[in-house]
Design goal:
The complex is a heterotrimer of chains A (about 280), B (about 325) and C (about 260).
Chain A lengths: L1 H7 L2 H23 L32 H37 L1 H16 L2 H11 L4 H10 L3 H15 L2 H9 L3 H37 L10 H8 L8 H33 L1
Chain B lengths: L1 H30 L5 H9 L4 H10 L6 H13 L5 E2 L4 E2 H35 L5 H14 L3 H15 L17 H39 L2 H8 L4 H38 L5 H10 L3 H29 L11
Antiparallel strand pairs in B: 1-2
Helix pairs in contact in B: 1-12, 5-6, 5-8, 5-10, 6-8, 7-8, 7-10, 8-10, 9-10, 10-11, 10-12, 11-12
Chain C lengths: L4 E9 L8 E8 L4 E6 L5 H9 L7 E7 L13 E4 L13 H12 L4 H14 L5 H6 L7 H12 L6 E5 L7 H18 L2 E5 L3 H7 L2 E6 L2 E7 H6 L4 H14 L2 H4 L4
Parallel strand pairs in C: 3-7, 3-8, 5-6, 6-7
Antiparallel strand pairs in C: 1-2, 1-4, 8-9
Helix pairs in contact in C: 2-3, 2-5, 3-5
Bound molecules: adenosine-5'-triphosphate and magnesium ion.
Adenosine-5'-triphosphate (ATP) binds next to helix 1 of chain C.
Keywords (chain C): ATP-binding, Cell membrane, Membrane, Nucleotide-binding, Transport
InterPro entries (chain C): AAA+_ATPase, ABC_Ni/Peptide_Import, ABC_transporter-like_ATP-bd, ABC_transporter-like_CS, P-loop_NTPase
Main location (chain C): membrane
Chain lengths: ~280, ~325, ~260
């Protein structure tokens, strides 16, 4: 309860949470708001925004409803962002905890792998991965997670190393708990809060990476995403720039929401630490 | 100086196993692709008979086992030979070397500009935590950092290239302009203004945020209180005591961001049609040219390692506590 | 004789706190006087020091008066008073050379250029008995021991020749031998320069051996203020007696033990 109060105490966090709630509602209600395939041709091509009440944001080059695309695009962005962050944090937390707990050669080897993932540009890695597998949503999610798990891994490892030395782990050892059991029951739960704060940053990064991938035509071609809408608008950039501008604004709003929410989380954690 | 040299040596040596992991990992990742460059090539020339396929596979060494090819690849890497690009029908090393400078101009200027202006604005914000200008800069930088670079590139392009016609929309230089020397450099600079701005603005936001967050931490430390108790000029406390210390993690971040900036250049180069390294990666994907993609990844990893060694050297100059035995990581 | 420093009814309340951390404290300090402030943890000693120095955190409410009769104006930090803090490791900037950190107050307040301020810093490092001051000028804080860092911090605090040095538990983090050296240093510096000293400490024996007068703080209030010997031998306030009592229990110092019934 007091955690909630601490969160509400930071205006950034509340604004971010509200933004995300609205976006999530839009994403969830998309099939109700705009039933049918948002990629289908719905009207005259290149209708300007606010001209036809049936198409408040106009239509694109092929006559697809821009607002429908925007609303359905929220699904892809949020889904990919959250799923990629979950995968990245899960991989990172497991590997980091393992490295921190095992120590020695295992630690050394795992950390070199972390280093390797850190010196390869995550976006290039995602590019390579998507080109090898097929560009479906799960592949895109995993490709993005591949470039994002090193942060949580380092954090989890550092956290484990610091917690490891504390008393209760020593006493758990004396009771005769298996090291892995200690890792799962005592250490991991303590390492989770700071990792959570980091995950907001990862969600934001994943939303942006997904947009960039689909902008380059490497996303799932069967679903509408904001990145693909921006790319789609490029061919008529001179005559209808809003086709690229509007989905970009949606992206910016989403990422701002995630960052603000993350700031709220961080403030909450900081207050908890000080208390 | 000795300390620095030893540091470079040690960093270079410790990078070898990491690079090896990158090479082997990428090799097997690309190996798992269905269809190789020969397939892609055959599709592009409209098919061919079995004899041609076998001959092509043999000439690119694709008929051997994966392990022996990996071994051969590692051997040729030692000779700085990255293999042959099927898609471009050229040696990969030459191709990359030709494209790399454009990307380095782009990244180098974007990094320098964003670092300088980002830290300066960060100092402006962090000099007075909680003040109006701090809040404005914090919120502004948060919003800016949320902007996708490629979209910012498009918006800048619509505004300054399409509407205002101040800058060219695409390319790295005017084609067949016959310009030489300084004229040519100026021409390239004009082409780079918009892509560099798109990248730099976003990283500026990052460095600004890092710097002000770092300063907010430092303000609480004892030595700052001691400096205030000495009655020093506010500017001296802000710059020499607070900002000077807050700079250290920002410099570390500069190294950590090198990989991400290189990745970001892929999309920016695509937006502005700059024939750079990142564009090459996109082309390699389109051509299903696995060896080329492999070469690009290996070279970018090398580049990131080099950047990080340089950053470490700078860090040693900035932080007297980092001895020869302990290096920030 | 005009007092160096005059406090009347000084109260401080920290933000979001109901109770004041310093409650109507009045006292005088004469030029060259050595005043010790003792009291248990949380009694407001540091708050008093920070209030004097104008270093209270933003939002803290201050009432009452601080005047400097012998100056005839308000005091300037660094120039009229210097401060030394508890943690010698943390009170020096880790990335600046010692020479700069000792010289900067002199450069600021004495109107010296950096070169002259550097010469002064070199002399100061010698006075606080840092071995090889020439070398120390170019070194960084992490290259010194805790006691040496505290000497450097003292040199930096007195660089602009302040009339008052405020030492907030400046010896608590150090081991006993080093503590004794720092105390000796305080005594020498005060004697040589006629500088006044406010020594905040938990250690009654230390207070009694160094200070001219001792102030006892308890729950944000000043409960007793008397010449050192008098306070130790005939304490007036119950709390002071209690404090002396616990002190005997802990260390069983015979000189003090004899005077307590
Ligand atoms: N920044 C602050 N905000 C709120 N309360 C504070 C702050 N600093 C100190 N206090 C409170 O004010 C009271 C007096 O603190 P102060 O630091 O002056 O005590 P002290 O006598 O120096 O103790 P110690 O011997 O532990 O240093 C304490 O109850 C403390 O919790
Ligand atoms: Mg105190």
């Amino acid at each position: 309860m007091s955690a909630v109060r601490r969160f509400i105490g930071s205006p950034e966090g509340v604004i971010g949470a509200l933004l995300l709630l609205v976006l999530a509602a839009i994403a969830l209600l998309a099939p109700l708001l705009f039933p049918g395939d948002p990629l289908r041709i719905a009207g005259r091509p290149l209708l300007v925004p606010f001209a036809d009440p049936a198409f408040p944001l106009g239509t694109d080059r092929l006559g697809r409803n821009v607002l429908a695309g925007l609303v359905h695009g929220a699904r892809a962005s949020l889904l990919v962002g959250i799923a990629a962050a979950l995968v990245a944090v899960a991989i990172g937390a497991i590997i980091g905890t393992l490295a921190g707990f095992a120590g020695g050669l295992v630690d050394e080897a795992l950390m070199r792998v972390v280093d390797a993932f850190q010196i390869v540009p995550g976006f290039l890695l995602a590019l390579a991965f998507v080109s090898v597998a097929q560009p479906t949503l799960p592949v895109v999610i995993f490709a993005i997670a591949l470039g994002a798990w090193t942060g949580p891994a380092r954090l989890a490892r550092a956290e484990v190393l610091s917690i490891r030395e504390r008393d209760y782990v020593a006493s758990a050892r004396i009771i005769g708990m298996h090291p892995l059991e200690i890792a799962l029951r005592e250490v991991l739960p303590n390492a989770i809060p700071p990792v959570l704060a980091l995950s907001a940053v990862i969600v934001a990064g994943a939303v942006l990476t997904e947009a960039a991938l689909s902008f380059l035509g490497l996303g799932d071609p069967n679903i509408v995403t904001w990145g693909s809408m921006i790319a789609e608008g490029r061919s008529v950039l001179r005559s209808a720039p809003y086709l690229s501008i509007v989905p970009g604004l949606a992206l910016v709003a989403t990422v701002i929401g995630v960052y603000l929410f993350g700031e709220g989380l961080a403030t909450m954690l900081a207050r908890r630490d000080r208390a | 100086m000795n300390r620095a040299l030893r540091l470079v040596g040690r960093r270079a040596i410790s990078s070898i196993p990491v690079l090896l992991i990158v090479v082997v990992g990428t090799f097997f990742l690309l190996e798992s692709a269905s269809g190789d460059a020969v397939d892609a090539y055959l599709v592009s020339i409209g098919g061919g008979d079995a004899a041609l396929v076998a001959q092509l596979r043999q000439s690119y060494g694709l008929d051997q086992s994966a392990l022996s090819r990996l071994w051969l690849y590692l051997g040729s890497l030692l000779r700085f030979d990255l293999g042959w690009s099927v898609g471009f029908n050229r040696p990969i090393a030459g191709l990359i070397l030709e494209r790399l400078p454009n990307t380095l101009y782009l990244m180098g200027s974007a990094t320098a500009l964003s670092f300088v202006f980002g830290t300066l604005l960060g100092i402006v914000a962090g000099a007075k935590p909680g003040s109006l200008r701090d809040r404005v800069l914090s919120i502004g930088s948060l919003a800016l950092y949320a902007v996708p670079s490629f979209w910012l590139g498009l918006v800048l392009s619509i505004t300054f290239a399409v509407q205002l016609r101040w800058f060219p929309t695409s390319g790295i230089e005017t084609i067949a302009s016959g310009k030489e020397g300084l004229d040519r450099a100026l021409d390239i600079a004009r082409h780079l203004v918009l892509p560099v701005s798109a990248l730099a603005l976003i990283y500026l936001a990052l460095f600004l945020r890092l710097m002000r967050a770092g300063m907010a931490e430092i303000w609480r430390l004892d030595f700052v209180r001691a400096a205030r108790a000495k009655g020093l000029a506010p500017s001296r406390i802000v710059l020499r005591h607070v900002a000077r210390n807050a700079l250290l993690p920002v410099v570390t971040m500069l190294g950590l961001q090198a990989a991400s900036m290189l990745g970001g250049s892929v999309v920016i180069e695509s937006v502005f049609a700059i024939p750079g390294f990142g564009r090459l990666a996109q082309e390699a994907v389109g051509l299903r040219d696995a060896p080329l993609l492999m070469g690009i990844i290996v070279v970018s990893a090398l580049l990131v390692i080099c950047v990080n060694i340089v950053i470490d050297l700078i860090y040693v100059l900035l932080d007297p506590r980092v001895g020869a035995s302990e290096v920030s990581s | 004789m005009t007092a160096l420093l005059h406090l009347t009814e000084l109260s401080v309340t920290y933000p979001r706190q109901a109770e004041p951390a310093l409650d109507a404290v009045s006292l005088d300090i004469a030029p060259g006087e050595k005043l010790a402030i003792i009291g248990e943890s949380g009694s407001g000693k540091s708050t008093l020091a920070l209030a004097l120095a104008g270093l209270l955190p933003r939002g803290a409410r201050l009432s009452g008066n601080i005047t400097w009769p012998s100056l005839g104006r308000s005091a300037r930090a660094g120039a009229d008073f210097g401060m030394v803090f508890q943690d010698p490791g943390a009170s020096l900037n880790p990335v600046l050379r010692i020479g700069e950190q000792v010289a900067e107050a002199a450069q600021r307040h004495l109107g010296l250029d950096w070169e002259k301020a550097g010469i002064l810093a070199l002399e100061l490092l010698g006075r606080v008995r840092i071995p090889d001051p020439e070398l120390a000028m170019r070194a960084y804080p992490h290259q010194f021991s805790g006691g040496q860092r505290q000497r450097i911090a003292i040199a930096a605090a007195i660089a602009a020749r302040p009339r008052l040095l405020i030492a907030d538990e400046a010896t608590s983090a150090l081991d006993v031998l080093v503590q004794a050296e720092i105390v000796a240093l305080f005594r020498d510096l005060c004697a040589a320069d006629g500088m006044a000293l406010i020594l905040i400490t938990h250690d009654i024996a230390l207070a009694a051996s160094l200070a001219d007068r001792i102030a006892v703080m308890h729950q944000a209030r000043l409960v007793e203020l008397a010449p050192a010997l008098q306070l130790v031998e005939t304490p007036q306030a119950d709390y002071t007696r209690h404090l002396l009592g616990t002190h005997i229990d802990l260390t069983d110092t015979p000189r003090i033990g004899r005077t307590v019934p």
